[in-house]
Amino acid sequence: MLLLGVVGKPNVGKSTFFKACTLAGAEIGNYPFVTIKPNRGIGYVRVRCADEFFNVQCNPREGYCINHNRFVPVEMIDVAGLVPGAYEGKGMGNQFLDDLRQADVLIHVIDISGSTNEKGEPVKPLEYDPAEDVKFLERELDMWFYQIFMKVWERFSRQVSQEHLDPVKAITKQFTGLNTKEEQVKECFKELNLNENIHSWDEETLMKFVSLLRKKTKPMIIAANKIDVPGAEENLKRLRKMFKDYLFVPVSAESELALKEAAQKGLIEYIPGDSSFKIINENELSEKQKQALEFIRKNVLERFGSTGVQEVINKAVFDIGNQIYVFPGGVNKLTDQHGNVLPDCFLIPKGSTALDFAYKIHSDLGDNFIKAIDVKTKKVVGKDHILNNGDVIEIVYKK
Q1: Residue 68: left if φ>0, alpha if ψ -120 to 50, beta else—which one?
Q2: In this model, does residue 95 exceed pLDDT 70?
Q3: Nearest Cα to Cα of residue 391 among 127, 50, 135
Q4: Residue 40 to residue 80: CA distance in whole angstroms
Q5: Residues 112, 181 contacting (CB under 8 angstroms)
Q6: Can you tell me the distance from the alpha carbon of 224 to that of 235, in angstroms, rounded to the nearest whole number?
Q7: What is the structure's pLDDT at 119?
Q8: In this predicted model, which residue has the larger pLDDT, 325 or 93?
Q9: Cα 223 to Cα 208: distance, rounded to the nearest angstrom
Q10: What's the CATH fold of domain 143-217?
Q11: How far is CA 157 from CA 126, 204, 318, in A?
Q12: CA 299 to centroid of chain Cα atoms
């Protein structure tokens, strides 16, 4: 399962964002280091369910489906707030960074209203420049990677040169703990036009390589939290111009959490990611709750189209993580042995083939693959057929 790492400074609403994604019991408080141990939970990407195409109602084995909106699970980890110097161990930084080793995509939660200073302490809105947080995290992550490399680099690079090893394969193998893939290392060599004699690299060359590899192995999306605070939207416009390489999403994590909890209690109808909600029974709401919901409707949903939380997850998985979603199914039977309709939906890398998908379901299906059928078109496709979002695929295999 894809792993999304939620990172950022203390007190920017990171744990609120995580709880809004997962409804997990993350501790939330207005002071640094509320989160000490990493919280793990399940968030969900929202996609159009294939059950709509077949005019049936699905029965998901994992996740859920509302009005043909399928919510597919992804794993999330919320690490404690990072402070400047985390890579040196400040604020238990090394431990927290290590928690991110296996993350596929990072979600950097920042306080776009500028009401949290560099130490994670509350200040007046717009008093602090959130652009500093983007720069700070880049440096912390780069230095974290650099330190991991430097621990072994002298000996390792000499060995690679002396034994005439393939530097791309050697680096991939040596730093597999950082979720490094061979293709990513190869891209770094090409983009930086690097000498294959890695033992000859100077410190500046190694730093450039490490920084680029970090961007490829830990791609990042920025959740611009507290967007409903006056003046925050101007900050967002400014940061988007400053950091053109990053995808910024306006977010109100508190609003999403309030809507989800109200929906859980049966007070409103709300589908995560929607631009509106419906009050079910107004008599059950207190005056304070009505005012809070009206604030969310006017200042968040009508202004920004959603709370942004669902959009962050979806963009992290599909735009940054380059995944697609595919359903297993049969031309004559969309149900499993228990009668569940389209029970499974898998996230797989963009560019995956029918054979890749067979292996994703079960190794036996891959090993004994004969052909695949696109259930929507009923066309037979071969093992090299590239799959698309929302495909329903039947795997025919030797039994």
Answers
A1: left
A2: no
A3: 50
A4: 12
A5: no
A6: 9
A7: 85
A8: 325
A9: 26
A10: Helicase, Ruva Protein; domain 3 (1.10.8)
A11: 47, 15, 36
A12: 26
pLDDT digits (tens, 9 = 90+) for 133-161: 999 999 989 998 998 999 999 999 999 99
What is the arithmetic mean of pLDDT over 55-70? 96
Distance set, CA 328 to CA 52, 172, 317, 372 (Å): 15, 33, 20, 10
Sequence-distant (≥ 6) Cβ neighbours of residue 111 within 8 angstroms: 9, 11, 12, 13, 128, 130, 133, 225, 226
The confidence score (pLDDT) of residue 86 equals 59
In sequence order, what are the beta bridge partners of 325? Answer: 347
Q: For residue 381, give both structure tokens.
A: 């496709």
Q: Average pLDDT, stretch 332-355?
A: 96
CA distance 261 to 264: 5
pLDDT at 39: 81
The pLDDT of residue 25 is: 42
The CATH number corresponding to 329-397 among 1.20.58.100, 3.30.870.10, 3.10.20.30, 3.20.20.370 equals 3.10.20.30
* pLDDT bucket at 229, cuts 50 / 70 / 90: very high
Query: Yes or no: is domain 3-121+219-317 CATH 3.30.572.10?
Result: no
11: amino acid identity, one letter = N
Phi, psi dihedrals of residue 56, rounded to the nearest 5°: -130, 175
> What phi and psi, each to the nearest 5 degrees, are found at residue 29?
-160, 165
Instruction: Match 């080793």 to its residue by tokens.
Output: 101
Task: Among 35-44, 81-90, 337-346, 361-370, name the one with the lowest average pLDDT.
Answer: 81-90
Which residue do the tokens 């040596």 mark?
A: 174
> 22 vs 188, 253, 262, CA distance in Å?
35, 12, 15
Q: What is the CA radius of gyration of the chain?
A: 23
Count Cβ atoms below 10 Å from residue 186 Cβ, excluding itself. 15
